[in-house]
């Protein structure tokens, strides 16, 4: 057995011999003793742990369980990659999402934090087929919690709003996978999801006073119907209360396999092309926007899901480009004007108007996101106040002091919509008007809260705060005031953004900031060819007069009002037609070639100049060495009065010294004498 010396450091000065021996024995014992540590018990989130956390009343046990839950939250936060936007080798989104949905069952602050983390992660996470199983689990859990727990309570809780947000993002992602045809093989999960979707139909009466929650739930229900039943089959059931047949469109025919063939509207396809043009700096952006506005009529029930996706994608492009923002506001103006018209309201009395409410809620939410997160201050200002000079807040006046003249919706910016809806709101106003006004005020509170502590946007923060204060002072409608209370309850408290305090801004994002970019990136790979030197748009038909159309490759040929895509079929590269580059692309390529050639010439000239400089430096160095040697020989002659060379041995003539010697030792000796003499004379 090897002997190990234990160094003893005397930190207390002079000590006694007996105490020194005790220190030696203790040190040797700690070194030779094998310490077997018991493995730590891993932190597993189980049903027993959740039950104990919610039911325990013992303060000590409660504190211990709270500490364990906090450790689980930190582990979940690391796996979600909240600080790196889901990037890194430590990120495991399916496992982290599962942990977060389990921790959301723990009451109190743990539940709120887990829901915030899950909502934030679903906003910025990229699309990956490995997430599908977990997404179905989240969809089932959220639907069950809303129907069996949240909707049964007599009061509205902030967790219910967060649950509906999580459900909205989850079903939005499932619909994108549905468009990709990736839900094949998940028939069992789709079958389990159907009862939860049917149960959501009975929660509409509970949340009729809260349009934001009702819109998210309606989107979940309608998206689930499309996912579970792509062919449109339905079954009929009997309501036990009314003893009448109830048609649940979400029921799936078991005999029908999952369909791989999907369809999208022209509106969604053009929004994807617009986003691609902005990302790749294409010169055809204005032409694509003209085509996009031609299909604005598709913001209707038939294309509701496509319209929501298109608004998110176009909203992400509007954060970067002014023309895209203008096109988005034109779409919003057309949709709001048509939905709030008296004729449309008469039609909606007997029809389902939930799609209009969903699209209106998404438009106001996307507009608020642009006001906060656009890349330039001009884009943020225009999204809130419009293109006209609206720097003065007198644009928004109290309703009781306004004239009786009707207010016209000009640009559908945030302030313009707020002014228009506030002038139309009344006890007998149409449902669409107060719902849009509710959504605007609800998002206004969240925008004011998110800018808390942001010193770089003092002007916008001041304008938002003043607008909100005028709404609070002048609005008498309880439905609108309820929107302010709900938004502040969701954000946990009310904060004055102009008073410094110890309260920090909310860590969770109040808007869907990244989901538009993720949707556009996933759908552009599906519906657009790879972006190369060729343009996205091809030549127009010369016979078509004012009407502009695309001439697309065969696999993207449009028929009637939809685009038919056959998935999982890839044509060989040789069969894909690549049009000749346009004049701008050719000019760029020619300019790049000229610049590269000129750079190569300059590089060759630079190398030649460097070689000349190096040759001159070597020549100058040899000249200096020769002059130095001559000066050394001159000093030698002056000192010893001899003209012989310094390496001639005694008794040897200079001629003999110049001849090579056959002895290696003699040569070595001559070199040593020469070096010694050189050092001496130097």
Output the keywords:
3% strand, two-stranded antiparallel sheet, extended, 682 residues, 6 domains, mainly alpha
Tally of domains = 6
Sheet with most strands: 3 strands, antiparallel
Number of helices, counting only DSSP H or I runs of 4 residues or more: 24
Proportion of strand residues:
under 5%
What is the mean predicted local confidence, pLDDT?
A: 76
First-residue to last-residue Cα separation: 64 Å
- Total DSSP E strands: 5
The H-and-E topology, N to C, reads as HHHHHHHHHEEEHHHHHHHHHHHHEEHHH
Structural class: mainly alpha
- Indicate the overall shape: extended
Radius of gyration: 39 Å
Description:
The protein has 682 residues and is mainly α. The chain has six domains: 1-33; 43-125, no CATH class; 132-260; 263-522; 598-643; 645-682, no CATH class. The chain has helices at residues 17-32, 47-55, 59-80, 93-103, 109-124, 132-148, 158-180, 187-200, 211-228, 266-280, 285-294, 304-318, 322-339, 342-348, 354-373, 377-385, 414-424, 431-450, 458-474, 478-490, 515-527, 583-640, 654-658, 664-681, and strands at residues 235-238, 245-248, 262-265, 558-559, 562-565. The strands form two sheets. Strands 3-5-4 form a three-stranded antiparallel beta sheet. A two-stranded antiparallel sheet has the order 1-2. Helix 15 packs parallel to helix 18 (431-450). The two termini are 64 Å apart. Residues 35-39, 232-257, 390-404, 500-506, 532-579 and 657-663 have low confidence and may be disordered.
């Amino acid at each position: 057995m090897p002997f190990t010396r234990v160094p003893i450091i005397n930190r207390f000065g002079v000590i006694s011999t007996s105490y020194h021996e005790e220190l030696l024995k203790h040190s040797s014992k700690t070194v030779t003793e094998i310490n077997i540590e018991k493995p730590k018990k891993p932190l597993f989130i189980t049903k027993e742990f959740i039950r104990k956390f919610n039911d325990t009343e013992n303060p000590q046990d409660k504190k211990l369980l709270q500490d364990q839950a906090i450790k689980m939250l930190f582990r979940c936060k690391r796996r979600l990659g909240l600080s790196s936007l889901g990037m890194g080798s430590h990120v495991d989104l399916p496992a982290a999402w599962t942990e977060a949905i389990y921790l959301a069952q723990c009451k109190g602050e743990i539940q709120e934090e887990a829901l915030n983390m899950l909502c934030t992660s679903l906003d910025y996470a990229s699309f990956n087929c490995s997430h599908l199983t977990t997404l179905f689990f989240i969809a089932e859990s959220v639907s069950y919690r809303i129907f069996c727990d949240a909707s049964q309570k007599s009061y509205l809780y902030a967790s219910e709003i967060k649950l509906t947000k999580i459900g909205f993002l989850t079903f939005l992602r499932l619909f994108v996978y549905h468009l990709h045809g990736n839900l094949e093989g998940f028939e069992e999960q789709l079958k389990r999801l159907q009862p939860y979707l049917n149960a959501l139909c009975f929660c509409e009466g509970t949340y009729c006073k809260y349009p934001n929650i009702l819109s998210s739930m309606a989107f979940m229900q309608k998206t689930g119907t499309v996912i579970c039943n792509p062919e449109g089959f339905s079954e009929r059931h009997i309501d036990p209360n009314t003893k009448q047949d109830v048609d649940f469109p979400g029921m799936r025919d078991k005999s029908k396999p999952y369909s791989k063939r999907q369809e999208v509207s022209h509106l969604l396809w053009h929004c994807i092309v617009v986003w691609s043009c902005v990302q790749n700096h294409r010169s055809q952006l204005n032409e694509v926007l003209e085509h996009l506005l031609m299909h604005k009529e598709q913001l209707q029930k038939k294309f509701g899901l496509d319209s929501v996706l298109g608004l998110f994608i176009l909203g992400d492009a509007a954060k970067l480009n002014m023309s895209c923002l203008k096109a988005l506001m034109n779409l919003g103006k057309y949709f709001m004007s048509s939905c709030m018209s008296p004729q449309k309201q008469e039609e909606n009395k007997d029809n389902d108007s939930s799609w209009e409410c969903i699209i209106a809620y998404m438009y106001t939410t996307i507009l608020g996101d642009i006001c906060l997160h656009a890349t330039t201050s001009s884009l943020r200002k225009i999204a809130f106040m419009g293109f006209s000079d609206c720097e003065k807040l007198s644009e928004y006046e109290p309703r009781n002091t306004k004239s009786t003249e009707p207010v016209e919706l000009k640009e559908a910016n945030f302030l313009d919509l707020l002014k228009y809806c506030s002038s139309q709101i009344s006890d007998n106003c149409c449902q669409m008007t107060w719902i849009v006004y509710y959504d605007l005020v609800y998002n206004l509170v969240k925008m004011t809260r998110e800018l808390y502590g942001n010193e770089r946007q003092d002007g916008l923060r001041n304008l938002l705060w003043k607008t909100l204060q005028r709404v609070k002072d002048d609005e008498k409608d309880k439905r609108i005031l309820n929107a302010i209370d709900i938004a502040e309850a969701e954000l946990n408290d009310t904060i004055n953004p102009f008073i410094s305090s110890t309260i920090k801004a909310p860590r969770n994002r109040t808007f869907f900031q990244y989901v538009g970019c993720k949707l556009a990136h996933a759908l552009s790979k599906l519906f657009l060819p790879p972006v190369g030197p060729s343009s996205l748009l091809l030549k127009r038909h010369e016979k078509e007069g004012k009407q502009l159309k695309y001439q697309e490759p065969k696999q993207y040929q449009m028929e009637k009002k939809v685009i038919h895509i056959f998935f999982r079929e890839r044509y060989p590269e040789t069969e894909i037609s690549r049009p000749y580059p346009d004049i701008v692309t050719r000019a760029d390529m020619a300019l790049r070639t000229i610049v590269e050639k000129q750079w190569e010439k300059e590089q060759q000239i630079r190398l030649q100049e460097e070689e000349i400089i190096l040759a001159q430096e070597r020549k100058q160095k040899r000249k200096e060495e020769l002059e130095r040697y001559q000066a050394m020989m001159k000093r030698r002659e002056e000192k010893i009065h001899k003209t012989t060379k310094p390496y001639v041995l005694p008794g040897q003539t200079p001629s003999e010294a110049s001849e090579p010697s056959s002895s290696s030792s003699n040569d070595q000796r001559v070199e040593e004498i020469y070096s010694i003499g050189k050092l001496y004379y130097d």
